[in-house]
C-alpha cells in the first residue's frame, strides 16, 4: 500500500480508535448479571476474537509507525540539509526557545515589590534589551513556521510503501 506520512498517521489514529471501541465493548460485554428468578441474557462476546482483532490492529499500527520512522529518518529536507527526524528535533528546541523568549518579553522594565514588614519597596529592573529579545523571538517564530511548512509538504507529498 502506498501512503504518505499524513495518511499513515491518520490510519494509526483510526486503528487506535478501533482498539478503544473493542476494549469498550469488552468492558460492557465480558460480564453479565441477572437475578435468580430471571433467565440470563448473555451478550455476544468472544475473548479469542477480541484478542485477535486487537492484535491485528496493533500489528498494523506497528508496521505504520515503523514505515513513518524509516521515512522520517531517510527523507532529507534539502532546504535544511537534514532529515525529517532532525527537523522534528529542531522544532522541539525552537519551541523551547520560543517559550523562553516569550517569558523574557513578559518581564517589565521596572517592577516594585514590598516584603512583609519592610519599610521600603524593592525595585527589580530588567537587565536586557527588550527589542533584542523581540527580534530573536520573531526570528524563532518565523523559523518554526518555515520548518513546519517544509515538514508538512514532505508529509503530504512524499509517499512510501507499507505492507499491511
Instruction: Note the run of SSEs as H and E.
Output: EHHEEHEEHE
Counted up, domains total 1
Poorly predicted segments: none
- Mean pLDDT equals 95
Assign the structural class, choosing from mainly alpha, mainly beta, alpha/beta, alpha+beta, or little secondary structure: mainly alpha
User: Which geometry do the CA atoms define?
Assistant: flat
Strand element count: 6
The residue fraction in helices comes out at 55-70%
Count, helices: 4
Tell me the strand percentage band: 5-15%
Strand order of the largest sheet: 1-6
Q: Give the distance, in angstroms, between the N- and C-terminal Cα atoms.
A: 7 Å
Care to describe what's here?
The protein has 164 residues and is mainly alpha-helical. The protein has one domain. Helices cover 63% and strands 11% of the residues. The strands form 3 sheets. A two-stranded antiparallel sheet has the order 1-6. The chain has a two-stranded antiparallel ribbon with strand order 2-3. It has a two-stranded antiparallel ribbon with strand order 4-5. The protein is flat and about 80 Å long. The mean pLDDT is 95.
Amino acid at each position: 500500500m502506498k501512503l504518505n506520512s499524513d495518511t499513515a498517521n491518520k490510519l494509526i489514529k483510526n486503528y487506535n480508535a478501533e482498539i478503544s471501541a473493542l476494549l469498550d465493548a469488552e468492558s460492557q460485554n465480558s460480564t453479565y448479571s441477572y437475578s435468580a428468578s430471571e433467565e440470563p441474557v448473555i451478550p455476544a462476546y468472544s475473548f479469542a476474537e477480541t484478542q485477535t482483532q486487537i492484535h491485528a490492529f496493533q500489528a498494523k499500527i506497528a508496521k505504520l509507525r515503523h514505515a513513518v520512522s524509516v521515512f522520517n529518518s531517510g527523507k532529507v529536507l534539502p532546504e535544511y540539509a537534514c532529515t525529517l527526524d532532525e527537523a522534528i528535533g529542531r522544532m522541539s528546541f525552537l519551541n523551547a526557545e520560543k517559550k523562553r523568549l516569550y517569558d523574557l518579553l513578559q518581564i517589565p522594565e521596572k517592577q516594585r515589590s514590598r516584603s512583609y514588614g519592610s519599610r521600603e519597596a524593592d525595585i527589580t529592573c530588567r537587565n536586557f534589551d527588550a527589542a533584542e529579545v523581540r527580534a530573536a523571538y520573531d526570528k524563532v517564530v518565523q523559523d518554526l513556521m518555515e520548518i513546519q511548512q517544509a515538514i508538512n509538504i514532505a508529509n503530504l507529498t512524499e509517499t512510501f510503501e507499507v505492507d499491511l
